[in-house]
Amino acid sequence: MVSLPSSGQHAHAMVTLRPIVAADAPAIAAAVDQSRHELRRWMPWAQGHYDIGSARAWIDASLATAAAGTGFQFVILDESEAIVGVVGLEDTSEHSDRAMIGYWVATPAAGRGVGRQAVDRAIAWARTQPRLHVLWAVVADVNAASRRVLEVNHFRLVATGSIDERGDVALIYELDLHLAGPDNHRG
Ligand SMILES: CC(C)(COP(=O)(O)OP(=O)(O)OC[C@H]1O[C@@H](n2cnc3c(N)ncnc32)[C@H](O)[C@@H]1OP(=O)(O)O)[C@@H](O)C(=O)NCCC(=O)NCCS
Questions:
Q1: What does the DSSP assignment read for 112-127?
Q2: In a domain, 99, yes or no
Q3: What is the CATH number of the domain that holds 123?
Q4: 139 lines ligand 1 (CB under 6 A)
Q5: To which H or E segment does residue 185 belong?
Q6: For residue 147, what is the DSSP state?
């Protein structure tokens, strides 16, 4: 588990990641429940019924993809080790050097740097995976917080997609894991 202090205006927030486990289901379900309003705007899975059973089923599927090496989900922990969100890398395979990053932060924990730090930690983990070279994300043009989280982590906008079923324009962001080290972008 990697734990680093945050910086700047978010100095009060510090997060760590750890791989998700089956016992996380109740806390995940509770975090989703606290965040329904915000999540359902952006995450299709949050629009319908969601309970501990839903969280269990999702964790089981995530553990299966981790065992197969095709996806890795992490819980985001705050200073007291409470679960405050999820960040994951999906659609990885031995035939591809790319992974899609996805994330959400529980609404009570939002707005204090958790999202940007969680993505930073996930990038650091991805850099330890020799076969991964590119992380990519799809985000609605009007999802300003998510775009900011990507941009502060040096993702760049590479494509504008079609209008989705919500009427939002889907934007594709990418990060080259080996060209985009912090030393190349800061200072
Ligand atoms: C997107 C999300 C993960 C951001 O998490 P967070 O912990 O609130 O983000 P942070 O506190 O790290 O803020 C990141 C940046 O976004 C900015 N931001 C936050 N809300 C914003 C808003 N509504 N409009 C514009 N910028 C916003 C913050 O000011 C911060 O920028 P700064 O560091 O320059 O001040 C969270 O809002 C979320 O879970 N949303 C619902 C799910 C979702 O959209 N997931 C991504 C799908 S692509």
A1: SSHHHHHHHHHHHHHH
A2: yes
A3: 3.40.630.30
A4: yes
A5: helix 182-185
A6: H
Residue in 74, 148, 175 to alter for ligand 1 test, most ligand atoms within 8 A of Cβ:
148
Output the CA–CA distances (angstroms, integers) from residue 99 to 35, 80, 131, 165, 177, in the order listed: 26, 30, 10, 24, 11
**pLDDT value for 185:** 46
Q: Which has more confidence, 12 or 164?
A: 164
C-beta of 78 in contact with ligand 1 (< 6 A): no
The answer, yes or no, to whether residue 171 has pLDDT greater than 70, is yes
How far does CA 116 lie from the centroid of its chain? 9
Is residue 154 one of the residues assigned to a domain? no
Query: Residue 20: which domain range?
Result: 8-133
Pocket flag, ligand 1, residue 104 (CB < 6 Å): yes
Q: Is the CB of 46 under 6 A from ligand 1?
A: no
Rounded to the nearest whole angstrom, what is the distance from the C-alpha of residue 79 to the centroid of ligand 1? 19
In the predicted structure, residue 111 carries a pLDDT above the cut 80: yes
Query: What one-character DSSP code corresponds to residue 16?
Result: E
145 alpha carbon to ligand 1 midpoint, in Å?
A: 3
